[in-house]
Amino acid sequence: MMTMENRRPLILVANDDGINAPGVRRLIDFISEFGDIVCVCPDGPRSGQSMAITMSDNLRLTRLDDYNGAKMYATTGTPVDCVKLAIYEALDRRPDLVVSGINHGSNAAINVLYSGTMGAAFEGCAFGIPSVGFSVTSHDHGFDLSGYERFVKDVVAKVLAEGLPEGVCLNVNFPSEPTPPTEMRLVRACKGNWSDEYDKHIDENGEPYYVLTGTFTNEEPESTDTDDWCLNHNIASIVAVALDRTVDLSTMNSKLSQSLKLVKFE
Amino acid sequence: MMTMENRRPLILVANDDGINAPGVRRLIDFISEFGDIVCVCPDGPRSGQSMAITMSDNLRLTRLDDYNGAKMYATTGTPVDCVKLAIYEALDRRPDLVVSGINHGSNAAINVLYSGTMGAAFEGCAFGIPSVGFSVTSHDHGFDLSGYERFVKDVVAKVLAEGLPEGVCLNVNFPSEPTPPTEMRLVRACKGNWSDEYDKHIDENGEPYYVLTGTFTNEEPESTDTDDWCLNHNIASIVAVALDRTVDLSTMNSKLSQSLKLVKFE
Asked: Is the entire prediction scored with pTM above 0.90?
């Protein structure tokens, strides 16, 4: 029995919406059967934190009451800080899986780059641990997430069984139609970007300030092999994403590549 | 004359060490001959901010005194916020180039992911603008940067002339030996990671807190085609890095790829 106990996978759960967000609680509910769960999340919202790390402030790690069998911790840091603090301080062994989310808001397309949810997944990946981020397009914390349970379980079971290639993690996004999706596809991030990103306001002293907003435009709305297309057609999307961002410039722009390849001054 | 004036390239300068860091001032000195310079930087240090964006707080953009012919602005935001605010609010036309830095600290290897300097470069890239981040391995704000001038000018001249492939920006790092480098190479990010990342302290109430520190280990120290190897041999490094992180899982792990390709539930 002891041996069996010890063989249960250890799963680290993180997010960027904070330890009290419904998304992370549902994620724990969905995957608790797969292993021992330790959850280390920010003590409040940290959306849009990307892979930010806290370099100058002191970090705190606070044990909270268990939730559904999971050990719960809050940190004062970013999602990446949560994964680092978990691995160095909160966990008694190396985790077999890092899952992040379920984020309240889409992390499809270019959002993957700004996402704190995916920041935590990339950090797990940097430690060489199979890592998956889950997000739902709805920002409504009251949105019913139960329709995603079978997809979350499917992905977690497969990744626990098969692992992931070195330096690759998964970005899973769910649509938020009234009827849950019945299908999930492995696709790529669509090309697209945000525009009109600030609302300009004037304060009581006549000074301007800016609040982030904006409109996302999919630049290839007809491409059926993209995350954004899936989400617009009530299909869950999986995009495999790389930690290493190096590209071989010589395959893309030979003239510039040649002129930058080796620069010598005497 | 008017036409010639209007043809001068517009260069946006950003950083993560803040508007008063020596690195950004030297960068402006080095490249002022190439065009009209507008500099939009955080109002204080924002190291390790990656591609973080400010989602809930109000942002301020403040015009400061010009520096060496450059228009200078400080923001209350992250490096990515600086680029966004510059493009939407501070600039009167689309910039021809975004340069970020010169960062006081290495952004080679995995540091590129956490770097606010490179966050600004990636954001410029997201707008479709050729973008380059410059960093020096020394954290000493008093370190003499003059030996890098010819390399900065060389890269800026080439990128202004040739552009960069869509979705690719450059991560340039300089070693900080007493004798400046005479060579710069186009290479790849080395494999490696940080360990022992926290110093644990106990406060006056007996409660622990954590401060980020750590040791970087290059996992392939003999690979001469990497940024870390170059920097350890007094050679400046250029790594071309991609905005889009999508990878084709089917080329890496066919079994998992096959099982995730299409998941259907009735």
From this structure: yes
